[in-house]
Amino acid sequence: MLSKVGHGAAWSLLLALVTAAPEATADDTSDCIAASEAAQSLRDHRALLQAQSRLAVCSRDVCPGPVRADCIQLRGEVAAAMPSVVFRAKDARAEDLVDVKVFCDGAPLATHLDGSAVAVDPGAHTFRFEAEGVPTIERKLVIGEGEKNRLIVAEMTSGAPLPSAAVAPGSPLDQARGSRLSIPGLVAGAIGVAAAVPMIILWVSGTSDISQMRDTCAPSAGGAGCPADRVNSDHTKLVVGDVFLGVAAAGVATGAILILTHLRASGGKESGGEQAGVRLDASPMPGGGFVSASARF
Fold first, then answer.
1. Confidence of residue 4 (pLDDT cuts 50, 70, 90)
2. Burial of 62 by CB count in 10 Å (0-12 exposed, 13-18 middle, 19+ buried)?
3. Superfamily per CATH, domain 84-155
4. In whole angstroms, what is the distance from residue 232 CA to residue 206 CA?
């Protein structure tokens, strides 16, 4: 027979068993373990959104204690690593647009813009902005792990560019299109400027050495004559310097001509299929050098 104390302890034990949370079933335990393993793998592959969803399953009270503790810890790590972005869209007057749909890699991400942050997986993504009455905008961006509240602005202007056949001669669009034809002129000018550097170096070195020889070993200075190899070396420096002078002059002059005349060619090519551009030829010759320049318009 149970004593009074024994009866009280038995009732307390019975009450605890009745009010305690139900233990995890075999199916619950299996689901928790599978969700935990899947979340780990997804985290390693930077699929943080899917990992977060699986961690919500294995963090439940019905999951075994060790599994639940690991998932709660990993859930915090995933939350810290999860990037977020804030979308803004501007019209032609730089005013905010609200009724804009945003897609991430083809999947819907937002139905309108309200300035709130949206969680995304880290990595390279293509964001597409769609709004009524304006062209669709796409932006390819790399979102860093742990990057929070990154601002992404889409400039959405009304109206599309005119087709090339409809661009009026002399219009701003025509001038913008023709401005690309000055690139060969810029290249030619850059070649000319670059050629001036070795020209100066060779001239300075050659003339300095010649002046030194005149003051030392030349007969006019009382010397027996300067070594032939030294004389030839300095002469070669001056000749090559003259060649670079010709390249520099031809490059700068040709570049200026091409820029001022805004090379005009259909698609940058002539009807014969040869590309418009500049050609410079330089070759040393006895006593100097020969430089020629030609351009195609």
1. very low
2. middle
3. Carboxypeptidase-like, regulatory domain (2.60.40.1120)
4. 10
Complete edge-to-edge strand list for the sheet that includes strand 150-155: 117-119, 84-90, 150-155
Hey, which bits of the chain come out as E strands?
Answer: 84-90, 101-104, 107-110, 117-119, 123-130, 137-143, 150-155, 278-285, 288-295
Q: Identify which has the larger pLDDT, 287 or 87.
A: 87
The one-letter amino acid at 161:
P
* Helix or strand holding residue 37 (H, E): helix 26-44
* Alpha-carbon gap, residue 270 to 279, rounded angstroms: 15
Q: Provide the pairing of β-strand 150-155 with 84-90.
A: parallel
100, 131 in Cβ contact below 8 A?
Answer: yes
The span from the CA of 265 to the CA of 186, in Å, is 16
3-class DSSP assignment, residue 71 = helix
Strands 117-119, 137-143: parallel, antiparallel or unpaired by DSSP?
unpaired
Taking a C-beta distance cutoff of 8 angstroms, is the pair 134, 157 a contact?
A: yes
Delimit the domains of the chain by residue range. Answer: 22-81, 84-155, 175-295
Q: What is the DSSP letter of 159?
A: S
Question: How do strand 278-285 and strand 123-130 relate by DSSP bridges?
Answer: unpaired
Residues contacting residue 41 through CB under 8 Å, at least 6 positions apart: none
What are the counts of helices (DSSP H) followed by strands (DSSP E) for the chain? 7, 9
Strand pairing class (123-130; 101-104): antiparallel
Please give the Cα distance from 120 to 102 (Å, whole number).
Answer: 12
Who wins on pLDDT, 80 or 182? 80
Convert the pLDDT of each residue in 214-225 to its tens digit.
777 767 666 667
